[in-house]
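User: Hi! I have a protein structure encoded as tokens and I'd like to know what sequence might fold into it. I'm fairly new to this, so please keep things simple.
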């Protein structure tokens, strides 16, 4: 029994249950991989500041020597821009690109809320502002992250976020379509004004790609909570197969995106 617990602690995979009762399995990004992504982001930020410096020199070069007031305005403007980029640049990227900065994109990692949902801008700002507190820990930050089961730094704990690998999401990019007659019938019944969120679309894609790994009975159990909500939203009152309903909505969504 003890050996089993030890193995679970060493495993970097975690399971997250979304509010729609969909269970996802993610592999946590380790501190060294996250550090590489951060260094790359820092290099991108440094490159931006260098370009800003060249722009500043170019502007100053063509200003009259006695136009000191305008120089002060330029200094103030560039200072504000630098302050915003330094403290909120990564937060803005994580908000726009669904939990990723340029460095995270290159290294294939992403920030998520602890409930498996995409992070919102408040979380992105909070976790990046508290990064300064992480720097205080210095090399002990790696030890701190290793001592908690989700490898969370102080910013992650405050913002209730975690960083995961993208390997599972990349596998879900292949398009799966169904020829089951019941699915075709369900697709025809879906209202034309029916809408699903990007998060739900992603959840359906994950479910469709993983459903073949479990039994039919287990598919029913997994699909029922979400399918019942969607059926209610579409005002379906008769009986239906929860598993096939999720598959039909997934395929209907793919058809709508064409």
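Assistant: Happy to help. Inverse folding works backwards from shape to sequence: for each of the 258 positions I chose a residue that suits the local structure. Here it is:
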């Amino acid at each position: 029994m003890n050996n089993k617990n030890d193995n679970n602690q060493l495993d970097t995979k975690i399971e997250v249950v979304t509010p729609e009762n969909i269970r996802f399995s993610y592999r946590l990004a380790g501190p060294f991989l996250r550090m590489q992504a951060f260094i790359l982001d820092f290099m991108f930020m440094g490159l931006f500041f260098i370009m800003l410096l060249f722009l500043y020199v170019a502007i100053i070069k063509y200003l009259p020597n006695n136009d000191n007031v305008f120089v002060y305005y330029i200094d103030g403007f560039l200072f504000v821009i630098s302050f915003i980029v330094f403290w909120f640049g990564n937060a803005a990227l994580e908000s726009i690109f669904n939990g990723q900065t340029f460095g995270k994109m290159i290294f294939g990692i992403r920030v998520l809320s602890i409930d498996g949902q995409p992070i919102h801008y408040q979380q992105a700002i909070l976790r990046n502002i508290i990064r300064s507190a992480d720097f205080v820990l210095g090399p002990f930050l790696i030890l701190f992250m290793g001592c908690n089961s989700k490898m969370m730094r102080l910013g992650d704990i405050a913002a209730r976020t975690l960083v995961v690998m993208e390997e599972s999401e990349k596998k879900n990019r292949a398009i799966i379509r169904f020829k089951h007659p019941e699915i075709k019938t369900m697709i025809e019944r879906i209202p034309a004004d029916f809408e699903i969120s990007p998060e739900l679309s992603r959840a359906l894609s994950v479910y469709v790609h993983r459903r073949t790994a479990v039994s039919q009975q287990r598919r029913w159990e997994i699909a029922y909570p979400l399918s019942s909500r969607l059926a209610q939203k579409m005002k379906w009152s008769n009986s239906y197969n929860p598993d096939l309903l999720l598959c039909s909505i997934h395929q209907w969504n793919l058809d709508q995106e064409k």
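A useful reference point when you look it over: The beta strands are 13-17, 23-27, 109-113, 161-165. Feel free to ask if any position seems puzzling.
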